[in-house]
Amino acid sequence: MFEFFSAFKTAFALIAGFDSELLQIVALSLSVSLSAVAIAALIGLPLGAAVALWRFPGRGAVIVVLNACMGLPPVVVGLVVYLLLSRAGPLGELGLLFSPPAMVIAQTILVLPIIAALTRQTIEDLWAEYREQLTSLGVTPLRAIPTLLWDGRFSLLTAVLAGLGRAAAEVGAILIVGGNIDGVTRTMTTAIALETAKGDLALALGLGIVLIIIIAAINGAAFGIGETARRRAG
Fold it and tell me: Which CATH number fits the domain that encloses residue 205?
């Protein structure tokens, strides 16, 4: 019991003292996750809007695939990216394996379906509401995309934050493609797993506390944005 409380005490001391190792790991984690979410949003928002507005053969299958990919197993994504970036893989010459860019690629693949699928549902609902009005004004589906994206910005921001929460808490994919190299690719989640296995509970707890705070902040922001959107809609 004493060891348990001692580990918590040391963990809080690391956080309060802005421990350099802890800060380095947190900074890399945020850098990787934010980069992945930004790339996924740039692709996923217009992709989801396009699927929502255009009718084409196989559209139902695309929607099913997007929804199914929201639950992609991280270790499978990590394995696929590893094979692509390994020396024998088609992208091996880029030399990205076991580097932050490789982790960004893996997290982007995990987050992209979440943002695209949620965007598709939001834009489809908005299009059903405004379709007659926009059509009467001669607005084509292509021209309607920016308008609907802006009108649904609060809901879409919640979707982006959901993707950020998934990225921040992910461990399997980035462990495979990043290698958990100290000072290079060690993130909060991979460091927690390693330090727990080593018995360094203080650092693991410190990182765990910071991770929980970040996830709570993301969910709080998503809730606040959702409430703001509902009040405006009302």
Answer: 1.10.3720.10
21-48 pLDDT, tens digit per residue, is 888 999 999 999 999 999 999 999 999 9
Q: Which domain holds residue 44?
A: 2-233
- pTM here is 0.88
Through-space distance between the first and last CA atoms of the chain, rounded to whole angstroms: 52
Under a CB-based contact definition with an 8 Å cutoff, are residues 122 and 47 in contact?
A: no
- Residue 97 phi/psi, 5-degree rounding, is -60, 140
User: 38-58 as b/e, with b when 16 or more CB fall inside 10 Å?
Assistant: ebbbeebbbbbbbbbbeeeee
Please give the Cα distance from 112 to 42 (Å, whole number). Answer: 9
Report how many domains make up the chain: 1
Measured distance CA(17)–CA(150) in Å, rounded:
42
